[in-house]
Amino acid sequence: MMKNSVTYFNRTDPKLEYEKIYIYFVRRYKEPFWRNLLSKLIKFFSKPKYSHVGVIIDEYLTSYYNPISKLKQGKFNEIFIVESIGKSDGVVFTTLNQNNRYAYIDVYSLVCPKSKKYQFIESLMKEFGKKYDYRAFFSFVFKFLKQVPSRWYCSELVAVKLKEIGFKFQDTKRISPSDLYYQLIDYNLELEAENIFIEK
After folding, report:
1. pTM score of the predicted model
2. Domain coordinates of the chain in residue numbers?
3. Are 101 and 198 in contact (CB under 8 A)?
4. Whole-angstrom distance between the N-terminal and C-terminal Cα of the chain?
5. pLDDT band at 140 (very low <50, low <70, confident <90, very high)
6. Cα four-point dihedral sign 125, 128, 133, 137
7. Which candidate in 91, 123, 164, 175 could, as Cys together with 127 as Cys, close a disulfide (CB 3.0–4.6 Å)?
8. What is the CATH number of domain 7-197?
């Protein structure tokens, strides 16, 4: 049964403010095979829809901006994200084009109470500088490998932080970007922008 992400949070106060959390998923890369190899291997060994995922931060230095508008205008260097990615060896706060150049992405939104959204963002911020979990990556192939608790791979980071604010997942220990997408569909995941090519 599909859950609506607003009603799922049991709205009881009519004055309660709701906002969107923006999540981007990488479809594929337009570049030589050896570039972004980890993401491509994750896609190959898991469900094949997406290979990487991160969170768009729509408020920076106390100023709100519309990331979807900037996305459609091609202003990728003005869109701020949090992601865990192998090429940066862990969790970083950067611009969308820094590590995702030549990627085709889809952007989705989830609706939740404003207080939950900021709890989610603050929790992500606390992970800055944590290393990338290469063992978790290889566990998609070698099931006997265990994850390192103090490290993150991309979809694990997003899933765990969403779980902290009330979203439910079957398992966050070995969740691929595609697994995350398919489970978030139950929360009325809304497509905001589709097949956007990040070229600069």
Report:
1. 0.83
2. 7-197
3. yes
4. 41
5. low
6. positive
7. 91
8. 3.90.1720.10
